[in-house]
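Deviation from plan, reported transparently: flavin-adenine dinucleotide complex.
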Amino acid sequence: MRTHPIVVVGGGVIGLLTARELALAGHEIRLFEQGRLGREASWAAGGILSPLHPWRYPDPVTHLAKASMAAYPALCESLARATGIDPEWTPSGLMRLGEDEGAEARRWAERFAVPIEARSLADICPNRGIDGAGLWMPAVAQVRSPRLLRALEAELRALKVAIHEEAEVVGITRERTRLTGIVVKGETVAASHVVVCGGAWTRGLLERYGLALPVRPMRGQMIVIQTPAGFLKPMILKAARYLVPRRDGAVLVGSTMESVGFVKETTEAAREDLIGAAHDLCPELAAYPVTHQWAGLRPSSPEGVPFIGEHPEIRGLIVNTGHFRNGIVLAPASARLAADLVLERDGAFDPAPYRLDRRLESAQDTPVLK
Ligand SMILES: Cc1cc2nc3c(=O)[nH]c(=O)nc-3n(C[C@H](O)[C@H](O)[C@H](O)COP(=O)(O)OP(=O)(O)OC[C@H]3O[C@@H](n4cnc5c(N)ncnc54)[C@H](O)[C@@H]3O)c2cc1C
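Because the crystal trials were delayed, the predicted structure below was used instead.
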């Protein structure tokens, strides 16, 4: 019998879905967020439900991505029904221009049974005057990240999860090797388990407890070009730039990758770069205005493989972070794995590749236990 609640630290997509998973299993949950829920990397995301160039990632990323992609339609439907907020799961498909990695992509697609075919853009997206050919991934869907976050928040409140905003967790408490709680606003809150889902800020919290995870902030900027609804249907990717058309005609253009620490400001240079990329991908976009620009801090990790596991020396302290460019798509499966670890359930995923103390290729990136 659990006498204290489970605490989740961080109110991004990873923390919210982890809290949901644990609450649905019948446990008392308290969630602490240092700012406001869902306003950091998860809010900034394009919401593409697949890694870009998925064959470039190690298998542990594909395993979580595939499971999450399969879970998303029912998750969004259930959230929309329960809360009235529709995350707009949309199977728009992703066209990747450029043939250079065709053979590798096809081998990957066959291995993981993911549909990929060589197509011309004019075929997929007629009447827009765009040409070029590439790999068409019809099964890739998208969600509107801010709506997903709002729906998750509403559902957690309905599930009676205690949500504390403007509440930075500054430490944990323990008795020898067993976690006993957290420290927040100068007080100790008792907990049976703590799941740290702190995104790019996770390392700062855990370093004091002997765990230096190689998770660092990586800024990403995006802009929005407002077109009429139905202007563009598929998502289009070329090299590092992509277009994500929403149902209402907003076309998101992403995204930069900048190692600038915890600086979240947008820049004029990125705006110009993204406008140029958008016009190159679809010249007709030049007729429409740029209406928004924003930035978010991705929690980067070596090869993009998240860290999901228990602290090697502190029982009851679990981490779920480091989803880098793929936190939205990896979130449902990552939350499931984290909940399995907390509840000591047998689950669908082998936890080994995500362990906090795993060896990494570069010694500099291997987590340091001090
Ligand atoms: C421009 C951009 C585009 C992206 N596009 C996509 C995409 O198309 N598809 C995709 O899958 N992914 C995408 N991503 C990546 C994705 O956004 C991230 O991987 C994901 O949001 C990480 O989620 P998170 O919950 O770990 O982090 P966050 O959303 O940053 O949440 C972490 C939360 O923890 C809180 N916190 C931290 N420390 C503490 C503490 N000590 N106490 C209390 N609270 C704390 C923070 O305030 C924050 O709210 C994109 C990211 C960016 C920036």
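The mean pLDDT is 95. We consider this an acceptable substitute for the interim report.
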